[in-house]
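Chapter review: from sequence to fold.
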Amino acid sequence: MVKVLMLGWEFPPIMSGGLGIVCRDLTKYLVKNNVEVFFVMPYVPEGFKTHVKIISANKKLNVSLKELKELIKKNALVNGYTSPEEFEKKVYIIENITENFDKKNLKKLYGENLFEEVEKYALSIDKIVKDYDFDIIHAHDWMTYKAAIRAKELTGKKLIVHIHATEFDRSGGNSVNSYVYNIEKEGFEKADKIIAVSNYTKNILVEKYNVNPDKIEVVHNGIEREEAKITYENEYLKNKDYLLFFGRITLQKGPEYFVEAAKKVLEVKKDAYFVFAGTGDKVNEIMNKVLEYGMHKNFYFYNKHVNREEVYYLFKNARAYVLSSVSEPFGITPLEAINVKTPVIISKQAGVSEVLQNVLKVDFWDINKMANYMANILKHDPLKETLAEHSYKELDNVSWDKAALKVKKIYEDLL
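The token string follows.
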């Protein structure tokens, strides 16, 4: 049995994005394939049990799982996309408005900013590597790389870094954070093997980080083929045929391209409806753009954290899901939409486009083509139904079991 020290920043239900879901599902199938996983998180609430051994990098908090989930849901402090300024603001909010929460514990938990939290996480690894017996180190994304490199130095064990998004994806190639970039680059240099979630990401590593392509293995993400149980209902969206944008409303996700395409759709289909679900630093900008174009009656902003049942509802009832990302290493959400038989329009700049054929693919900047696809799905039932049926069948080939076997093979080849 291979024993893995896995370093991650989130794990459901303590999560703020798709990375947590990937960690949960990948480890589930690694365990099924006879791999033992010790998963290190920045902090763990009392009573947190799952299919892997969860290790807290910092002292456990005297707080219930429910309370911690609420804090994460409302403030997303464990989000790798949080800037130092946002981090400080969110800590301030928790300190000042959260009732029934021990502020002393809060001070023990959080540093002054996200970067300090990353440093704290790295320092915790010294004791952990002494307390656990493992064969290999597997680190997810830049927040864990300092700890992973330290673990390798202390033990001499081989290191795999798993990249789910680069600083070039998060920034759209603009204003790259040098601190994050340097951590990523050091992680890639010190790693014995790099797992990229797509060939799209592999190419970024080669071009932007000067990584030897022979060092990189591509392992596409998978999807859990579970049946969505939906009891939630949104009265406002009931009986509306809408096109859905779901995700962080940030530069990376290309929300402005969705709006520009919607404007063109409304020129040919005046009753078209569009839903934005998610939060992010561009929410106000996007709302103002919708108002400027006079489209507010055709838009609904679901400006809140969306739980899993709400996600299923939004996907299930959408006419189509549109992923307009400027740079998307993989993209789990199109698979989730297809899993409830909703067709998708996806950016060619998304890694998930490498594993799907029965979808409509478009360059994020090609507003005319995106609008044409959106309008045709709204107008033509046969197109919608054919795409939904055929893409759903494709999910049989996009499994976590296959992904886990590839990862296990990487482990075994390094040992």
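Two observations follow directly from the output. Residues 72-81, 97-112 have pLDDT under 50 and may be disordered. Residues 18-32 form the longest helix (15 residues).
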